[in-house]
Design a protein that fits this description.
Elements (H helix, E strand, L loop, with lengths): L6 E4 L3 E13 L2 E10 L5 E5 L9 E2 L3 H12 L12 H12 L4 H17 L4 H22 L3 H11 L13
Antiparallel strand pairs: 1-2, 1-5, 2-3, 3-4
Length: 172
């Protein structure tokens, strides 16, 4: 399915490169493993070839999909998001959604956390989730569109930055 030097995405870890395919003898059976080096944190993963897709290993999104997701994130930034549930329930829900192999699901978590951050201060756990979602989304989109990841992060953070009413030209 994948070959050496392929760029792949592993859920919750982000973009990685397949360094090699190893063959290991485990209990008398020979198993093949993708050896994936994650770019963001330089850790190495061993992913069994036979169930790589079932654990979420996938190819990077293509340029059109990356552009669509980025355009969606940059549009409708004034949308409101429901924050009525407590932060603990929201944290669990977002943590589960960040495990999705679908980048658009992770991007929606990022959008919601950025919108919540405009309305109120995020808890420590929410800030950690925001950072994780930002790294996952920007890491993959930057690879797909050949853009610097830090530039993407800065652009999104400035788009969603809180703007007090008096700075918008309206009285507070």
């Amino acid at each position: 399915m994948f070959s050496e030097d392929s760029l792949v995405v592993y859920p919750t870890q982000g973009v990685g490169k397949i360094e090699r395919i190893d063959h290991k003898d485990i209990g008398g059976a020979v198993c093949d493993f993708y050896i994936v080096r994650v770019r963001a944190n330089n850790i190495t993963l061993m992913v069994p070839v036979h169930n790589a897709t079932s654990v979420g290993l996938r190819a990077l999104v293509g340029e059109p999909e990356a552009r669509r997701i980025l355009d969606d994130l940059q549009a409708d930034i004034d949308r409101s998001v429901f924050i009525g549930q407590n932060w603990n329930r929201r944290f669990r829900e977002y943590s589960e959604r960040l495990k999705s192999p679908d980048l658009s699901v992770v991007a929606e978590v990022l959008r919601e956390l950025l919108l919540i951050g405009r309305a109120k201060e995020l808890s420590f756990g929410e800030r950690r989730l925001l950072e994780q979602a930002m790294n996952l989304v920007c890491g993959e989109i930057s690879e797909a569109l050949d853009l610097p990841a830090e530039e993407l992060k800065d652009r999104l953070l400035s788009l969603y930055a809180f703007v007090p009413l008096e700075e918008e030209g309206q009285p507070a």
